[in-house]
Amino acid sequence: MQAIRDNRNATPLSRRKAGGRGAVRVPPAQPRQLPRLRLPRPNLRGLGGRLQHLLWPLLLVALGMGLYELGSRLMPLADRPIALISVEGELEYIDREAVQQVIQPYLNDSFLGIDLDGLRSDLLAMPWVAQASVRRVWPDKLVIALDEQLPVARWGDKALLNNEGKAFEPQDIARFSELPQLNGPERSKRRVMRQYQQFSSLLRPQGMVVSKLELRDRGSWFLTTDDGMELLLGRDNLVDKMQRFMTIEQLMLSDRRELIARVDLRYSNGMAVAWRDAGDAEKVSE
Length: 286
Fold this sequence. Notes:
By secondary structure, the protein is of the alpha/beta class. Among the domains are: 84-148, membrane protein fhac (Ubiquitin-like (UB roll)), CATH 3.10.20.310; 153-285, 3-Layer(aba) Sandwich (Rossmann fold), CATH 3.40.50.11690. It is 31% helix and 20% strand. It is built from 6 helices and 12 strands. It has helices at 47-78, 96-103, 116-124, 189-203, 238-253, 278-285, and strands spanning 84-88, 129-137, 141-148, 153-155, 159-161, 167-168, 181-183, 210-215, 221-225, 230-234, 260-264, 272-275. Strands 6-5-4-7-8-9-10-11-12 form a 9-stranded mixed sheet, with helices on one face. A 3-stranded mixed sheet has the order 1-3-2, with helices on one face. β7 (181-183), α4 and β8 (210-215) form a beta-alpha-beta unit. α4 (189-203) runs parallel beside α5 (238-253). It is elongated and about 160 Å long. The N and C termini lie far apart (206 Å). Mean pLDDT is 83; it is low at 13-20 and 280-286.
């Protein structure tokens, strides 16, 4: 018996597909990647400070040049001739004409060009000028302030002393003959002035005035009152000796003061009194 196969519904056998002749499949090209370069990041820290260090000198130079240029342009406008000079101060002994003579050489100087220190030095060289100041007042004025010497005593025959013990030599010293006479070594002016002021403050309450005080070369002090009484004080313990004299004078001698010619206080515990003659006492009392 022979079997018969129905091939109508049979699945055809798969055939092997033959590739195209001479054709080659090429895969698509991939993009080429280049290597990345990593550059160092700039360090900006401190850059502002460095720029300031560089720019500040430039700014200062530019500012200086600008100010110089501005000053050179304004200088001719500001430096004008002096139009007014004012002299201030209570002047009793200073001669204004003498002041004018000192100022005269400076009148041709300009407002900014005048030598203020030189003018002040010339004013201080005047015998009656104790202090002097010179200043500019915008736009063209000069103000001079003068302080006079305060004469307190005579020093020797040619000079006067002010309250600080500084000597000055005016020309008209004869008009100050009523001032007390102080004498001593040349370098002892201030010391003698201080001692005079101390003695005056002690004697004034008892109505006595110092008319003469002398410090001799050996250091001894001699004082004369306005009524002619001489006090020999020695070298040391001057205040104690003066207080001792004042106590004894007030208790025992006040009613006979015009009869006293000299009091020697050079003793440690007492004093010696020398009396005037009767004729001399009458002259003093007159």
